[in-house]
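Lab meeting, item 3. Inverse folding demo.
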């Protein structure tokens, strides 16, 4: 008879259910459904890492993955950091933001961060709903976690430029959410943040940076295809794929 070890036991006790259909956040006119892992108190950092490797993501204490009828447009993606080499544009991005200072802060509410979040949402996602989030909704989304989460603040000459929430897994980092000063012109702060996370993985000998979902027909997700090589969870297996291929991510 086989026995479950301590790390397998909590995972075996998880239950999964599908939500009702709701408007898709990424593809206009489409309906989405999610598969949700419960109960939340059993989703420890170790269990969550296994869920991420199976294509799940986290929003607050809500752990989910897309489970849409007749649609497989959302592809979980990750970067094998050892094989990553920045291209010309990314090297320019690193140089442009070399004066940014990163520091880790407690995973708690800071009014300055919330104000930046609202500015970012209004500039980049106006009308998406999140631009109207009150501070309680903001906190539930980004500051509630049962796993090993970190809040990283980026400043330049004493001015807040960017905030990033990341989860630490046993095989890398999972990028949860990043928001930044929408008035900073030029090379993308968002791209710099991914490059910074890649550097953290390299420094800690973590093999992967998990970037959530890539959707071929979503402009919001297009930037992820600029980081290569990229691996997608396709047919329950992680494999390298070419995001520029017109057949990649067909629904």
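The presenter then showed the designed sequence:
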């Amino acid at each position: 008879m086989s026995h479950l070890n301590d790390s397998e036991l909590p995972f075996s006790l998880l239950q999964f259910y599908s939500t009702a259909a709701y408007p898709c956040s990424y593809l206009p006119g489409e309906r989405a459904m999610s598969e949700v892992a419960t109960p939340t108190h059993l989703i420890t950092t170790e269990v969550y890492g296994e869920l991420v490797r199976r294509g799940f993501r986290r929003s607050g204490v809500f752990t989910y993955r897309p489970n849409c009828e007749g649609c497989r447009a959302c592809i979980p993606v990750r970067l094998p950091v050892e094989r990553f080499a920045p291209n010309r544009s990314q090297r320019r991005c690193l140089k442009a933001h070399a004066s940014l200072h990163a520091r880790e802060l407690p995973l708690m509410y800071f009014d300055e961060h919330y104000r930046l979040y609202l500015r970012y949402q209004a500039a980049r996602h106006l009308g998406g709903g999140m631009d109207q989030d009150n501070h309680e909704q903001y906190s539930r989304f980004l500051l509630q976690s049962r796993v090993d989460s970190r809040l990283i603040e980026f400043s330049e000459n004493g001015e807040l430029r960017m905030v990033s929430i990341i989860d630490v897994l046993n095989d890398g980092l999972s990028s949860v959410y990043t928001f930044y000063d929408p008035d900073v012109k030029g090379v993308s702060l968002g791209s710099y943040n991914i490059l910074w996370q890649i550097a953290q993985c390299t420094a800690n000998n973590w093999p992967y940076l998990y970037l959530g979902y890539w959707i071929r027909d979503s402009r919001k997700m297009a930037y992820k295809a600029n980081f290569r090589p990229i691996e997608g969870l396709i047919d329950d297996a992680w494999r390298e794929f070419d995001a520029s291929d017109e057949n990649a991510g067909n629904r």
